[in-house]
Amino acid sequence: MYDPVSLRPPSEASPGRRRTYEVIFEHDTRAGRTFDVVLILAILASVVAIMLESVASIRATQGHLLRVLEWAFTVSFTVEYALRLWCVSRPLRYARSFLGVIDLLAFLPTYVSLVVPGGQVLTVVRILRVLRVFRILKLAQYVGEARVLAMALRASRFKITVFVFTVLTIVVIVGALMYLIEGPDAGFTSIPAGVYWAVVTLTTVGFGDVTPQTPLGQTLATAVMIMGYGIIAVPTGIVTAEIAYAARGGPASPRRCAACGREGHDADARHCKWCGAALPA
Predict the structure, then answer these.
(1) pLDDT at res. 144
(2) What is the pLDDT of residue 153?
(3) pLDDT tens digits, residue range 158-170?
(4) How far is CA 162 from CA 93, 113, 174, 240, 256, in A?
(5) Mean pLDDT within 30-44
(6) Domains, in order of start, for the chain
(7) Cα separation of 115 and 165, whole Å?
């Protein structure tokens, strides 16, 4: 992100430059709110046009109109981006910010499509520009809730990593076993094919493109299916516990003792209540 205040044009800037900054970046003025609302409506309309163009029947009858609309939106977003760079005091800083990059990607793929056919579909990333709705509609309080979620996910990263590696180990072993039990005749032409089947089955997706045929293979498949129900609940429980802990105002995660690995210490604890080792600050 970026801080719009730090990008405010200097006092000696021309009135037109300062006025442009107020309209584009200031969200507390009537002109600024109107501009942002129109911009978001244009973004949504352009994304709808791109989606409709991907439908063969609509493209056959309205393809030219949709293409004209796409180029009209692209030119408008290009001019808007140029105005943003012109009116801020530090254009490079804005261009390298998260929203600055998104603003650039909002129109760049359409120009790329002149060289790479079909590249314009990537312009759907401009939907990210509606993030500005948090400023326009005064939804800043939700940013705090997003921060709690981010803290919980960050605190869960080690447990989730262990969980993912455990699942990878299971699917590799099960995939190898199914390749050994079923063989190419049942569609298990290789160990990677068996691993693919194990992932599909363990996640309870069940495409059904490859299925075991032997009683032993079906028994193993049954065990994997039942295991899948339990495995799905693990990451949900981990993240939910971290969210509840963070929502109570505590640290992102119960502090872990580096010596014994135990958790569950109080927020103000200085030493581990199990082994007595000093806890990280």
Answers:
(1) 60
(2) 79
(3) 888 889 999 999 9
(4) 38, 42, 18, 17, 16
(5) 88
(6) 4-139 (1.20.120.350), 148-247 (1.10.287.70)
(7) 41
Q: Nearest-CA neighbor of 4 among 105, 94, 132, 138?
A: 94
CA distances from 124 to 41, 61, 78, 86, 103 (A): 14, 22, 15, 25, 12
What's the CA gap between 278 and 11, in Å, rounded? Answer: 54
